[in-house]
Write a structure and sequence with these properties.
Blueprint: H1 43-47, H2 51-61, H3 69-81, H4 87-108
Helix pairs in contact: 3-4
Length: about 110
């Protein structure tokens, strides 16, 4: 017959040291200025009459403070470049990844 086992998995060590949360919330953009977004990447131009595609983008992929695909790409490019050690390398790779996203978008919109 199987026996019941009782496990005590608590740590019996009192600790006054606070632990930082492992997840860092992303920084929100400084301003909600849409002037740096190219016109053809604004959501109205990007999806033309495709309301389903626009709604899916808004509900599933855009962060709460984003409103255009370009902002999404910029956030992703920043996240991908964030693993670089120096600020210069982060900026270089952010620009490269953003350029790649823009070129990929052109190829898929034929």
């Amino acid at each position: 017959m199987a026996e019941a086992m009782e496990l005590d998995l608590t740590l019996n060590q009192p600790s006054t040291e606070k632990v930082d949360p492992p997840i860092v919330t992303p920084k929100k953009p400084k301003s909600k200025d849409a002037s740096d977004i190219p016109v053809n990447y604004k959501i109205d131009e990007y999806y033309d009459d495709d309301t389903l595609g626009s709604d899916v983008l808004k509900q599933k992929y855009l962060a709460p403070w984003e409103s255009h695909p370009y902002e999404l790409w910029k956030r992703q490019a920043t996240a991908l470049a964030s693993v670089e050690k120096t600020e210069a390398l982060r900026n270089k790779w952010e620009k490269k990844v953003l350029l790649y996203f823009r070129r990929l978008q052109i190829c898929t919109r034929w």
